[in-house]
Write a structure and sequence with these properties.
By secondary structure, the protein is of the alpha/beta class. The protein contains five helices and nine strands; from the N terminus they run ββαβαβαβαβαβββ. The strands form two sheets. It has a seven-stranded mixed beta sheet, with helices on both faces. It has a two-stranded antiparallel ribbon with strand order 1-2. The two termini are about 30 Å apart. The N terminus is likely disordered.
Length: about 220
Amino acid sequence: MLALVFRDVRRPQPTHATLATHARGTSSRQLRIVGGRLRGRRWRFPAGDVRPTPDRVRETLFNWLQHDVTGRRSLDLYAGSGALGLEALSRGAAAVVFVEQQPRTASALRALLRDWQLEDARVEQTDVARFLAGPPQPFGLVFLDPPYAAGLLVATAAALSSRGWLADGARIYVERSRREPLPPLPESWHELRAGHAGEVGYHLFEYRGGKGRIDAR
């Protein structure tokens, strides 16, 4: 399927190329889309501190979401390889905003969006805290996968809830190190599902902070 190497990131590779599935923590740096209209497409993201959500975790997450992806505006924070946002686009998300601080990674992700002609997505190359301090736009689906050791989860969750970034009924995916307990999150976040795989602990929440009917589109 389609693959990209960073130094040639603007040039599509043969879609029939056989590539090894990305293994978390290996040097392959390869990502495969596991479902939807982009299923099977692959790309090789730049070297660096990038830790894509494993294939089997993404598959479980999107099985949980079922019909809660189609038509929703999605926000992929600490995007890295863009694995979660790309999967959402593949499965019918209305639009995705990727927020990634590292210039090299953000540039490669922008090039991938152009090569795959994903016009309903954009990359914001900035710090997540700075992005969330800007004018809020409610999202119906949020992916929150900060660096495990950085202690960013609590502050990011608080900013999402307090500054109006979450539509009522929004689904929020949280990923953490299984070695660490889940920290206290906003009371308006109601856990729907949870699981673990290897070193990864992952959770799906629903935001119930608004009043009246749910409107997560």
